[in-house]
Amino acid sequence: MTSPLNSPVPLSVLDLATVGTGHTASEALATSTELARRAEEWGFHRYWVAEHHSMPGVASASPAVLLAHLAAATSTIRLGSGGVMLPNHAPLVIAEQFGLLEALHPGRIDLGLGRAPGTDQATARALRRSAEALSVDDFPQQLAELIRFLDDSFPEGHPYARIHAIPGPVQGKVPGGVQSASRPPVWLLGSSGYSARLAGALGLPFSFAHHFSPANTLPALEIYRESFRPSEVLDKPYAMVAAGVIAADTEKEARSSARAGALAMLRLRTGRPGLFPSPEEADGYPFNELEREFVDSWLSNVIHGDRDKVRQGLDDLRALTDADELMLTSNVHGRERRLRSYEIVAQAHRS
């Protein structure tokens, strides 16, 4: 893969469809649509959306629905889930959803999978319908089942051998030969070593959530590369690192936006999720000592600043991780700030 931007590796976008205070989910989704169009123009490689539930500040609960809309609004950029939380769903349903997306937009769809619930335990139980289903111990089996549905490759005698995920690569098994030209590539996402090891063993591409689990980044990437076995998908490891990045015209403005993001995460981590706060809210928030420590720790892992500082931060992260691709999430309040952040990053890597 070559970089569409003039940078050492491809740069991509992870969008949470952030809903800020004073705004609606409809406005946030309109901003995401515009950002996807702009990201395509600016040369970003992929645009992924993530599954979250019961979070007022995140409007991307259903990645497949949002991806269908974004794909219709763009023409060349790759689109995908970063990710679908597989234990929340029946594998057949995901195979059908992403098979349909691939049939509508051939060669442009990625299926990134995670095993976390993307929410709190109570909401996870509502999604999965029982306390027993809250375990993720059978994730490898769920993944294997999903891949079988995507490839239409259950062996004869298997209980699902006569079941087909349509649209999909059904090759002569169904009268009329209903089939898609391709199927979406599967990625594994992770914030620890578990999915890293599984992705390596299966020869799949791997994306690590450095933006909220920086202490595990290098150990997980090492596990992935050491455990990698060549497959029909890849002949060598392909690691993408997701990073929090906030760029602005001045360092002061970037830090103000970054502090608002830290406040949003503080509220989430303390069980108070809400709409994404504005920089003005963050500036006026009465942080206590422990909260200030959390904010400082969070900000230390967010690349933020003006164009030159952000470019240096991305170069440093690339050098540290030897990533094959960087995926950037710029969670800031307001349409103009979000668009400008990604625009500055694109400019920095063209200069």
From TrEMBL:
GO terms for molecular function: oxidoreductase activity, acting on paired donors, with incorporation or reduction of molecular oxygen. This is Luciferase-like domain-containing protein. SUPFAM superfamilies: Bacterial luciferase-like. To bacterial alkanal monooxygenase alpha and beta chains. Pfam families: Bac_luciferase. It comes from Wenjunlia tyrosinilytica. It comes from the Bacteria. PANTHER family: LUCIFERASE-LIKE MONOOXYGENASE (PTHR30137:SF6). Residues 12-319 form the Luciferase-like domain. One of its GO terms (cellular component) is cytosol. InterPro entries: Bact_Lucif_Oxidored (IPR050766), CmoO-like (IPR019949), Luciferase-like_dom (IPR011251), Luciferase-like_sf (IPR036661).
